[in-house]
Amino acid sequence: MRKRLLALGAGGVVVVAAAPARAGNCVDLPNPVVIESADTQEPLLKSLGQKLRASSATPMTIVYVTTGSCTAISDAYAGNALKVTAKYVPSAAESPTWTPTSPSPTCAVDATAGLPVDLSISALFVSSCTSTAAPAGVGAFTGPIQGYGFVVPSPGSTQLGISAEEAYFTFGFGAAGLATPWLDPAFYFIRPTTKSTLLSLAAAIRLPGAKWLGQQLAASTDVVTQVSTSTSPEKTIGILGLEIYDQNRDKLKVLAFQAPQQKHGFWPDSTQTARDRRNIRDGHYLPWAPTVYLTKVDGAGAPTSARAKTIIDLVLGNDLAGGDVDGLKQVVGAGLVPDCAMRVKRDVDGGDLSLYTPAHPCGCYYEANATGSAPAACVACTTDTACGTGKCRRGYCEVQ
Amino acid sequence: MRSTLPSLRSAALALLVTAALASAALLACSNDSDAPHDAPVDSGQPVDTGADSGTPADAGSDTLGSDALSSDALSSDALSSDAPDAIDAAETVPECYTNPKTHYEIINACTDAARVDKHPSGLPFLPDGALPPPP
User: Which of A3, A129, A166, B87 is the most buried (most CB within 10 A)?
Assistant: First the structure.
């Protein structure tokens, strides 16, 4: 299903922008690392993959297939190989104009033998998909935080927020829920029940995923399209991962969310237009889940795939000796929150929050990169001496 | 009558102490000079200027009280148990928490982040205020 994009130029000239050429077999790409991932994580895979293709210290090609979190988890548990056409991140030499917002080229997979998966990425707690413990030899590593949200058309909808109860009555009851203006399920654009976006929000409003009314769409981009082009914008509501929302702020608004027992509703960010994810990080905005990286591990719990281990280390912000890729910068740029920037945690989707102090905090680094400037309270540093009793981490003083 | 005076004095003293503590808590929250005012109920409109009064303007109007959560779909077991009960809430619960520790305090911690108040009316709660199970 390869496509060429046709666009009519201002002068009436038809411009043909060729999609990246399809490579041969995925296994023939240089240093491939094969990933099956929740589709919300595709922006990160693309941006990180671009850096890794250009890396001299840790060169590799991210070959990936996007799916639902629960599918990724069950495949990881069963050790299933990929048997469908995969995408990959091209090198600058192969595709000089490619950026992480471009479609990824595809490569062929042997449909009989399949392609062994090095790394599976879920965008919610494993416990939301299965109560079965990971089989021996499969390890789970908690990755960056993924936020979720209810979105409405912008411009078009006047709505600014939704409470957990409104969402419960909207998606659970439709017109009978009386949650004005969201009374018609024909204008609810949701995701399937294997997707982290639906399951995480289901946990936030405590409406089981199987009970949601609305149009189940296979891809996040379909939600963007349906919500933003709705013929009845005021009645329209959708659900998205926040990194997808970030890429479409020109046509969507995320709603402030008021959780059960919460006195006010808050946006994921400190204001409707900010990008600091402050309310996720400090516990005022509750629809979020950690990503979980699943990979084969040895008896000591270390990943057996060196490339998978490198990716895990990069997204966790672990220092790689001689490394030339800033993994955390890609995490932040992709709209995720690194664990080191969180001040709260939870143990299950929709579960209670508790206070959290990361071992190596990076709150100032996070805000500096997410918003373009560090908060006034953050002190720039090059050594610990500038930080009193704190530590200099990633260019800013942190508490420890 | 004579024997009740000491208890009346104690009660009065307790009221004074309670009022003083409540005032201190409200002042702590109102130090957040950038915090927004409460938006009108159901307006869905954030107000992003002015100091936080710290007044629990929505007390009693929450549609999801701690006792309104007993349906299968939203069982009380699934909710935080650290929320104050209704009687405590009316008398001593601050508008926000400056040093949050529990889940309830974390989600209601003082902040200068913009906010929206959502207290819609007319939702079909069960007579006891609980959420009905979904069809």
Answer: A166
Closest listed residue to residue A330, CA positions, set A127, A95, A42, A112: A42
**How many Å apart are CA A84 and CA A90, to the nearest integer?**
19
Give the separation between CA A291 and CA A218, rounded to whole angstroms: 20
Contacts of A255 (CB under 8 A, 6+ apart): A149, A150, A151, A152, A159, A160, A161, A162, A237, A265
Q: Name the average pLDDT for chain B.
A: 56
Q: State how far residue A111 is from chain B, nearest Cα, in angstroms.
A: 42
- Does B123 sit within 8 Å of A177, measured CB to CB? yes
Over residues A36-54, mean pLDDT: 95
Which of A169, A170, A263 to mutate: most B Cβ within 10 Å? A263
Q: How many CB pairs under 8 A join A and B?
A: 141
As given in the structure block, the two tokens for residue A114 are 């399949």
pLDDT of A174-199, one tens digit each?
A: 999 999 999 999 999 999 998 889 99
Q: Give the separation between CA A359 and CA A357, rounded to whole angstroms.
A: 6
Residue of A nearest to B108 (CA): A262
Domain extent listing, chain B:
2-107
Half-sphere exposure for A48 (CA within 13 Å, toward CB): 31
Q: Cβ of B95 and A263 within 8 Å?
A: yes
In CATH terms, A144-288 corresponds, of 1.10.3720.10, 2.102.10.10, 3.40.50.150, 3.40.190.10, to 3.40.190.10
Cα distances from A377 to residues A284, A364, A367, A372, A396, in angstroms, run 20, 9, 11, 15, 10
CA torsion B50-B56-B61-B62 (nearest 10°) is: 90
User: Is the pLDDT assigned to residue A307 strictly greater than 90?
Assistant: yes
- Nearest CA to CA, how far is A210 from chain B (Å)? 10
CA-wise closest residue to A266 among B129, B133, B111: B111
Best mutation target, B106, B112, B121, to test chain A (most A CBs within 10 A): B106
| Span B98-108, average pLDDT | 96
The domain limits of chain A are: 5-135+291-333, 144-288, 340-398
- A264/B123 CB distance under 8 A: no
Contact state of A266 with B112 under an 8 Å Cβ cutoff? no
Taking CA–CA distances from A356, the nearest residue in chain B reads B101
First to last CA, chain B: 59
pLDDT band of A212, cuts 50, 70, 90: very high
Please give, rounded to a whole number of angstroms, the shortest distance from the CA of A117 to a CA of chain B: 36
What residue in B sits closest to A343 (Cα-Cα)?
Answer: B106
Nearest chain B CA: its distance from A55 CA (Å): 39
Residues in Cβ contact with A297 at an 8 Å cutoff, skipping those fewer than 6 apart: A137, A138, A139, A303, A304
